Amino acid sequence: MNLITVFRRFPDQQSCIEHLEDIRWGDDPHCPLCGAAHVARKCDGDRVGRWNCHDCKASFNVLSGTIFEKTRIPLQKWFLGIALMVNAKKSLSSHQLARDADLTQPTALYMQQRIRAAMAAEQAPLLQGIVEADETYVGGKPRKRNRRAGKNPPPPPPPPA
Ligand SMILES: [Zn+2]
After folding, report:
1. How far does residue 20's CA lie from ligand 1's centre (Å)?
2. Is 14 contained in some domain?
3. Which one, 40, 42, 92, 160, has the greatest CB density within 10 A?
């Protein structure tokens, strides 16, 4: 996914949250604290994506238990950082990331450290899901999803004889 796609596909915090909910839970949301599926979306206006667990009574969101938990950095910048790091041919310096994503250098460094740790751990599928977001989403309804489609594009057609 290139940067233009990130901006178009994830214009705001809400679209990022919805995407994370989709790749983390799909149609089966559950409490990250106790694992219960007995959960309900909270409707309290301005806080996007809050849920209540009816079993352990906790309040949570899709960021709980991930590298994004309690972050103050807009999720769009996290997604950009992940796309930049995954797409980078060589390793990306924190100074470069800071310039590209409009962050301070210490913030960029912090993000990189968390993204790298997540890539090496069990959160790798979550990050993969972010960068492999189906580009047919952009500006329309989701079509048939195929997570492998982006990895091995078909070879170009042969030149005319
Ligand atoms: Zn719970």
Report:
1. 19
2. yes
3. 92
| pLDDT of 142 | 47
Q: How many residues does the chain have?
A: 161
Range of the domain at 111: 3-27+66-136
Whole-number Å distance, alpha carbon 71 to ligand 1 midpoint, is 21
Backbone angles phi, psi at 54, to 5 degrees: -80, -15
Running along the chain, 161 residues long, what does each successive block of 10 average in pLDDT?
84 93 92 94 76 94 92 93 86 92 95 91 85 57 46 62 66
Joined together, the tokens standing for residue 79 give 């997604």
Q: How close is the Cα of 59 to the center of ligand 1, in Å?
A: 8
In this structure, is residue 153 part of a structural domain?
no
> What b/e readout covers 87-122, taking b as 16+ CB neighbours within 10 angstroms?
eeeeebebeebbeebebeeebbbebbebbeebbeee
Q: Ligand 1 centroid vs 38 CA: distance in angstroms?
A: 8
